[in-house]
UniProtKB/TrEMBL annotation, chain A:
Intracellular or extracellular location(s): Cell inner membrane; Cell membrane
Binding-site residues, GTP 2: 35-39
PANTHER family with a match to the protein in the record: FE(2+) TRANSPORTER FEOB, FERROUS IRON TRANSPORT PROTEIN B
Function according to Swiss-Prot or TrEMBL: Probable transporter of a GTP-driven Fe(2+) uptake system.
Residues reported in the UniProt entry to bind Mg(2+): 21, 24-25
Superkingdom of the organism of origin: Bacteria
Native source organism of the sequence: Pectinatus brassicae
Stretches assigned to the FeoB-type G domain: 3-165
Positions that bind GTP 3: 56-59
Family, similarity comment: Belongs to the TRAFAC class TrmE-Era-EngA-EngB-Septin-like GTPase superfamily. FeoB GTPase (TC 9.A.8) family.
A Pfam family reported for this protein in Swiss-Prot or TrEMBL: FeoB_N
InterPro entries assigned: Fe2_transport_prot-B, Fe2_transport_prot_B_C, FeoB_GTPase, G_FEOB_dom, Gate_dom, GTP-bd, P-loop_NTPase
Protein name per UniProt: Ferrous iron transport protein B
UniProtKB/TrEMBL annotation, chain B:
Protein name in UniProt: Ferrous iron transport protein A
Signal peptide: none
Keywords on record: Iron
Domain Ferrous iron transporter FeoA-like: 10-81
Pfam families associated with the record: FeoA
SUPFAM superfamilies: C-terminal domain of transcriptional repressors
GO molecular function: transition metal ion binding
Native source species: Pectinatus brassicae
Keyword Iron: yes
Length: 629, 84
């Protein structure tokens, strides 16, 4: 028998994705719908010896083809004609959910209506007559409780036993469609036409609801309402939000994610690369090949893998919070602040993560609703002071401003934030001025998240990063390895003789007006694109210091003479400003390419941040000179 | 269209938390169709729940779900406080 094709449609927050995850488990893959950054989720199930392919269409309130998501849903349903189209409905919110149902029926798409989360509706005191609804509309209706095994079995057995073309629209629906057609013919103004049709649909919905829903026992105040009185209200909402943000940040960058990343880093870059180096040497592999394998490939793989624990931890937290419904409250509470910065309320979570690491922050922007918000958030994140920039700042501050070190480091954070806000505003009125950013957000009921969904989402993020961003990051790391170990006459042991040193000397001419035009600084700027913390180790090698200590105070001692000789306090500050703002590291660049799907945006992110950094450090240096520093 | 005798227009943005109102009509705006699709059509009853800690946006309860919208958009929704 051929594979049965099933498509899941429905409003957001109906538990549709939970049903999809429960139906398919790990037999699913996530891709992109062509041309847009909307996830395409397909999966497989087997029941009664029948292979079933299931696609989880984006959650939408309507199918008017106004957004990419709506366009995807209607195109897919009309062009692919799946065997069974399931319309997943949140039973406790059936009124608004039926709007999409009517639209689907108007397109003559036979649907299996799934009244999901019936338990929640019953708890709220709603009584819904499933049979009556089926009778009124003419289509099959099934009741489910999202994550129960029984419900999933029931759905699978209905999928394999139901023949959709046996069902016809009821007379009531046929009459409705005729009325819609009549409006379309009579009303020539397209806006008015659409509005009249919308009103007609809600008229019919009110009629249907009156017949199938008994609201006489509905509780006046729901649990959600009680929780919101704390989490979304008054002055206590903000401190709680800050506490939540702080918690997620600490879990990711202090308690769980970073320690695992450090372990992994040690295992790969110290232990494994040591073992590999010894093994390769003992079997007599040529030294250039040893270097390629150990310093190029293993280090490249290492730079990809060490970010994985951060991404897994952060997305576990974000996806868990999203599952509870709290993320919508974050957006609600933060919208006024973020809007003034040219961003949107939901963007606060990914942006804050940018102070830990830009990579998960850039990936987190995917949760934002509009393309414009996503792009702006992705493009301004790199200005923030991530964990890798911090040691560079701390070292320079300790060497050049020993009495004021923490204030100087703090000023870097401020410069980063100010530039992020300023560029968000600039991008808002230039590159993305035609795109609309709106704020119309459902505050879904609080729920206990479905852990299967949380784990699957986390896994997908990690896998997507490894496969899509990993290859780019790996390639760029190997390229930089080549540049720092080779020159025109072949391999070289001295980085000072490498392509990198020549390039550094060339690049350094760009910084004559910023006061740091030494070839060492130029080379450090180049390796800083691989990883920001590499700025220090590169300078250590180029100034013949050898390994720079991890401890800031010890490192400052080592570097004091070398740096003191080639930087003044002012040119050091200008160099710090440049390092704070210029190009994201290759890992972040690879992630930008993956998230935006376009090389263009990756190159743009590289070029515009570097230009901004160049100008700001120029202004800082020249203004400082005028002021007599 | 309006059953309200007073000539002054009351917009949703001016309604205090806890109050129930009925939608009279929506003024033209880029969001109009989306708002209507989400169930905010003339005649619909709704309740204002709260405003965000910084005053904007506001949260309403409509057709048994909760929605938040900015005050600028709420100003395009004309309501009446006539007995419900």
């Amino acid at each position: 028998m051929s594979t049965l094709s099933v498509a899941l449609t429905g409003n957001p927050n109906t538990g549709k994705s939970t049903i999809f995850n429960e139906l398919t488990g790990i037999r699913q893959k996530i891709g992109n719908w062509p041309g847009v950054t909307v996830d395409k989720k397909t999966g497989y199930a087997k029941y009664d010896n029948r292979a079933i392919s299931i696609v989880d269409l984006p959650g939408t309130y309507s199918i008017n083809a106004r957004s990419p998501e709506e366009q995807i849903v209607i195109d897919y349903l009309l062009n692919e004609r799946p065997d069974i189209v399931v319309d997943v409905i949140d039973s406790s919110n059936i009124e608004r959910n039926l709007f999409l149902t009517l639209q689907l029926l108007e397109h003559h798409i036979p649907i299996l209506i799934d009244l999901n989360m019936m338990d929640e509706a019953n708890k709220r005191g709603l009584k819904i007559s499933t049979n009556k609804l089926s009778e009124i509309i003419g289509m099959p209706v099934v009741e489910t409780v999202g994550r129960s095994n029984k419900s999933i079995k029931k759905l699978l057995s209905i999928f394999t036993s139901t023949v959709m073309h046996n069902y016809k629209n009821s007379e009531l629906i046929d009459n409705h469609i005729a009325a819609v057609e009549k409006i379309k013919q009579d009303q020539l103004d397209p806006d008015k036409c659409e509005e009249q049709i919308i009103a007609l649909r809600y008229n019919l919905i009110d009629t249907i609801i009156a017949q199938i829903v008994d609201t006489s026992n509905v509780a006046s105040s729901s649990v959600t309402e009680k929780i919101d009185r704390v989490l979304a209200n008054g002055f206590i909402a903000l401190p709680i939000l800050l506490l939540m943000l702080y918690g997620v940040f600490e879990i990711t960058f202090t308690w769980i994610g970073q320690p695992i990343a450090d372990e992994l880093d040690f295992l790969l870059n110290t232990w494994f690369s040591g073992v590999a180096a010894n093994t390769l040497a003992s079997i007599g592999v040529a030294s250039w090949l040893q270097s390629l394998i150990v310093d190029g490939i293993i280090a490249g793989v290492g730079s990809v893998l060490t970010f994985v624990p951060l991404i897994f931890t952060l997305f576990f937290c974000l996806s868990f919070l999203d599952g509870t419904g709290y993320m919508a409250r974050v957006a609600f509470v933060m919208d006024p602040v973020m809007r003034r910065a040219g961003l949107t309320g939901k963007g606060v979570m990914p942006l804050i993560m940018g102070f830990g690491c830009g990579v998960p922050a850039i990936m987190g922007a995917r949760a934002l609703d509009s393309e414009k918000d996503r792009m702006i958030s992705i493009l301004v994140t790199p200005f923030l002071t991530c964990g890798a920039k911090l040691p560079v700042m701390a070292l320079f501050a300790a060497v050049f401003f020993p009495n004021n070190a923490s204030n100087i480091v703090f000023s870097m954070y401020i410069i980063g934030i100010v530039m992020a806000i300023a560029m968000a505003k600039v991008l808002n009125v230039t590159t993305f001025k035609d795109k609309q950013s709106t704020f119309l957000l459902e505050l879904p009921p609080y729920r206990i998240p479905d852990m299967k969904t949380v784990f699957l989402e986390t896994w997908d993020k990690g896998k997507g990063y490894l496969v899509k961003a990993g290859t780019i990051i790996f390639a760029m790391s190997v390229l930089i390895w080549f540049l720092s170990n080779y020159n025109m006459s072949g391999p070289t042991d001295e980085m000072t003789q490498s392509f990198l040193a020549y390039l550094g000397a060339g690049v350094s001419h760009l910084f004559a007006l910023q006061g740091f035009d030494s070839w060492q600084a130029g080379s450090a700027v180049i390796t800083g694109v691989v990883a920001k913390e590499a700025v220090i180790s590169t300078m250590g090698i180029l100034y013949n210091i050898g390994d720079v200590a991890d401890d800031t105070a010890a490192a400052a001692n080592q570097m004091m003479t070398a740096l003191g000789g080639s930087f003044t306090a002012l040119s050091a500050f200008s160099f710090m400003v440049f390092t704070q703002l210029y190009s994201p590291c290759v890992t972040a660049l690879g992630t930008i390419k993956k998230e935006t799907g376009k090389w263009k945006w990756m190159l743009f992110a590289f070029a515009y941040t570097s230009l901004v950094a160049w100008f700001i450090s120029l202004i800082v240096y020249q203004a400082g000179r005028l002021l007599g520093f | 269209m309006s059953t309200n005798l007073s000539s002054e227009k009351i917009t949703l943005a001016a309604i205090k938390p806890g109050q129930r109102v009925q939608i009279e009509y929506l003024e033209p705006s880029p969001l109009k169709e989306r708002l209507m699709s989400m169930g905010l059509v003339p005649g619909t009853a709704l309740k204002v729940l709260r405003s965000a800690p910084l005053g904007d946006p506001m949260a309403i309860s409509v057709r048994s779900y909760n929605l938040s919208l900015r005050l600028a958009d709420a100003q395009k929704i004309i309501v009446s406080t006539a007995a419900l």
